[in-house]
Automatic annotation (TrEMBL):
GO terms for molecular function: monooxygenase activity. This is Quinol monooxygenase YgiN. Residues 12-100 form the ABM domain. The lineage of its organism: Bacteria, Bacillati, Actinomycetota, Actinomycetes, Pseudonocardiales. Pfam families: ABM. Keywords: Monooxygenase, Oxidoreductase. It comes from Actinomycetospora cinnamomea.
Amino acid sequence: MATPTDDDRSLLTVIAHMKALPGKEQELREALESLVEPTLAEDGCVNYDLHQGKDDPSWFFFYENWTGADKLQAHLANDHLVKFAGRLDEFLVGGADGLVITQLQRIK
């Protein structure tokens, strides 16, 4: 199965992960799901795939690919992301510090 970086190794891959506070799993899932459609419409977004842990459904992950760091920065400044970021303390273990974003570059 192909991945976006099979055809374009210059893409910026992002993995974002977070853990829901106990009892907030469904509310967080709904909030995250609401980010997908507007993000997919953003300039530079190749994919924005939301995942939930199978063994521990309190974990959520985004697997994303962007055409450049500038596009990712624009994404992070969009209203829907800023609004969501303002609610991290009510959703995540560790509040805003509980959202871990890792930028990756495919090498092989």
